Amino acid sequence: MSQQTTAGYSGYHQRQVPAEDPELTHVGPGTRCGEYLRRYWQPVAMSAEVKDLPVPVRILGEDLVVFRDKKGDLGLLHRHCAHRGASLEFGIIMDCGIKCCYHGWHFDIDGRLLDAPSEPAGSPVRQKVTQGAYPVHEHGEIIFAYMGPPEHKPPFPVYDTMCLADTDSKPFSLSMPANWLQVYENTQDPIHVLHLHALSSGIQFGAASGVEQLIDYRDTPLGMINVQTRRVGEHLWTRTTDSILPNCNQTGAIWEEAESSKIFQRVSMLRWMVPIDNTNTLTIGWRYFNDRLDPRGQDDPSIVGKESIDFIGQTGGRSYEEQQRQPGDYEVQVSQRPIAVHALENRVTSDRGVTRLRRLLRERVQAHAESGEAPLPQTNEADTISTYCQDTVCSVKASTDEDKLMKHFGNRVADCVVESGPLTEAQRIEHIQSMCEKEFSD
Distance (Å, rounded) from C-alpha 35 to C-alpha 180? Predict the structure, then answer.
């Protein structure tokens, strides 16, 4: 019996483009997703960008200016002066705060009006006017802001991978003309690694990443992970990739080849996909370096920074022909339209991670809209937040039913990774090592 297919040449009947999904893609003040994102600390700039002049930034649809006053204190203010709207990007850095160049109104880093020099000494303006301002926190050469209700400001989150021994970090910041969600959900689409980064464009990362994989997903206390399991020679390799809600991601070693056994190897990147506005995204975070992650010396920290990172396809700086011949993440995410239209998608089983991530986000967005509450991560005994991204590689004999073996191995590693969250780093390694030796040793 022949298989029926749909009729071809149907462009005329597929011309209508529905609206985007505003609940998850619109991020300005007052929007559901925007208000949810504002309940968490968001990175807004690298410290190296903020020197002796104010720096204009746009975050979550708001025009702001970040600066460091002469005392060294950071400020993040609404860009347009509360007096007559001139931009504070042209302001004068003061010992304390910033002064508008237009009429000299002087604001502290918290937005309080310190002086309005052309007004009489007793003018009530100094008590009535404040410039919009947000709290900031500087960590690891990145400047973070909390843009939500001041009374709900959470503690700054310190993830366990921000404190790894014998690991160097370097901040980076990449901009992309695309909605934040299509950038973020790419991290829960692991099947694209096989196609985009291997079969379509040639090997862009480690050759082992181009090996067929079994994929699963599960929730974590922070959001979700995908579980990728591959057979690479005599080894089974399971990678778990973090989505830390609302908009943070961790991934494993860029050049992993799974050529030797390793247990709970940690991450190559911790990054946030921060909405600049509805149609632009700032990917900002840290790239991590150590000999375990890069045994063949393929990393290049010297080029990691503003609009630059040391692996292909993350920025728009290549020629159009090169982008067409060897597309990367940048090309596929931008080309989905400024805001991807979910109603036009035909999602299949390999899109389970994207579907799951959207569902988790929608549940959180809706819960926040109804209750005004946003869940915060809990700290472990080391006073950091346990995360769930890692690579584990073990020597495991092939089976007559390889799919069953790979699925079992991937599930057991993922079980151990998630259930070991409350333990120390050393205890987590021991827990996974013990499981592998008991259940999968030759």
Answer: 15
Nearest-angstrom CA–CA distance, 250 and 417: 14
Q: For residue range 301-351, what is the model confidence (pLDDT) as tens digits?
A: 999 999 999 998 899 989 999 999 998 899 999 999 999 999 999 999 999
- 231 shares its domain with 334: yes
Which tokens go with 84? 């007559």
124 and 165, same domain (yes or no): no
pTM score of the predicted model: 0.95
Distance between CA atoms of residues 295 and 256, nearest Å: 9
Q: Are 107 and 115 in contact (CB under 8 A)?
A: no
Return the SS3 of 36: helix
As a whole number of angstroms, the distance between CA 151 and CA 75 comes to 19
* Residues 122/116, Cβ–Cβ less than 8 Å: no
Are 289 and 423 in a shared domain?
yes
Q: Are 249 and 243 in contact (CB under 8 A)?
A: yes
| 371 Cβ contact partners less than 8 Å away, ≥ 6 residues apart | none
